[in-house]
Amino acid sequence: MKKKYKDEEAGAYSCVNHISKKTNGIMNVILILMALACVLPVLLVIIVSFSSEQSIFENGYTFFPSEWSLEAYRLFFKMGDQVVRSYGITLFVTIVGTVFSLAVTTLLSYVLSRSDYRYGKPLTLLLLFTMLFNGGLVPSYMVNTQILGLRDSVWALILPMSLNVFYVVVLRTFFKSIPMEIVEAATIDGSGEFNTFLKIVLPLSKPGIATIGLFTMIAYWNDWFLGMLYIYETKNYPIQTLLWSMQNSLESLKQSSANALEYAEMANNAPTNSGRMALTVLVVLPILCAYPFFQKYFVKGLTIGGVKG
């Protein structure tokens, strides 16, 4: 009887193990296909950026162009001042905007996470109300241009995105997971509120802050709408707005050229399709390089609320 029971148990274990291996194999295939679906478009953009216009005209966008060319990148070297300036503006906006946004978000989230804060609930409701209902585009445009005077200013690319209520709610929940006993112990030892926040709460919150920082950095880097809305001088365009401008027309080339003859020559010989892809590569490359530095914090931030046993 015992032998029969052991045989049945071994058979059941073997069956479960076989199903588990089969399921893992199917999941691995699905994940590989999903990864390829993400990687292949990026690879196609890079290949097209090194393709000649004639090749794109004859064969369309393909992984195997009939003719390779660096003409698209030579085009940007010709208008290098504008590209470098736009890159500089975008880097400044991304770095300063991310730091400023994280400072505002973490301070506000920590205050709202404290149960002993008297106005926590009313302030939270007010923030949630603004997330659901806002004044709209026209009032915000009037406030930023006529009251704050942010037209054609780099601060017009930073301040409107400096506070995201969703990120405040996420960090508020994250701060609540920190045991209050640690904060109380620091207070008993004579630490002030701000000192406790800087030296105890922030180091314990690195995964959550890094995750929100990554999202904020990507939002600032990828934003083109604020540049289109508030920036009128082409020389003050961030790189994403410059890409938008070049995708719509060659007007940006005209404004960056020294004279009309140079513009005519550039407009006639400009690699339009490969040029768009080349500028896309130049725009995407820095943010791709930033991902590995945030990866461990990003993964930990997503799993920090998981059940541990």
From TrEMBL:
<keyword id="KW-0812">Transmembrane</keyword>
<feature type="domain" description="ABC transmembrane type-1">
    <location>
        <begin position="87"/>
        <end position="294"/>
    </location>
</feature>
<keyword id="KW-1133">Transmembrane helix</keyword>
<feature type="transmembrane region" description="Helical">
    <location>
        <begin position="87"/>
        <end position="111"/>
    </location>
</feature>
<keyword id="KW-0813">Transport</keyword>
<keyword id="KW-0472">Membrane</keyword>
<feature type="transmembrane region" description="Helical">
    <location>
        <begin position="154"/>
        <end position="175"/>
    </location>
</feature>
<dbReference type="InterPro" id="IPR035906">
    <property type="entry name" value="MetI-like_sf"/>
</dbReference>
<feature type="transmembrane region" description="Helical">
    <location>
        <begin position="29"/>
        <end position="50"/>
    </location>
</feature>
<feature type="transmembrane region" description="Helical">
    <location>
        <begin position="196"/>
        <end position="221"/>
    </location>
</feature>
<feature type="transmembrane region" description="Helical">
    <location>
        <begin position="123"/>
        <end position="142"/>
    </location>
</feature>
<dbReference type="GO" id="GO:0055085">
    <property type="term" value="P:transmembrane transport"/>
</dbReference>
<protein>
    <submittedName>
        <fullName>Carbohydrate ABC transporter permease</fullName>
    </submittedName>
</protein>
<feature type="transmembrane region" description="Helical">
    <location>
        <begin position="277"/>
        <end position="294"/>
    </location>
</feature>
<keyword id="KW-1003">Cell membrane</keyword>
<dbReference type="InterPro" id="IPR000515">
    <property type="entry name" value="MetI-like"/>
</dbReference>
<dbReference type="GO" id="GO:0005886">
    <property type="term" value="C:plasma membrane"/>
</dbReference>
<dbReference type="Pfam" id="PF00528">
    <property type="entry name" value="BPD_transp_1"/>
</dbReference>
<comment type="similarity">
    <text>Belongs to the binding-protein-dependent transport system permease family.</text>
</comment>
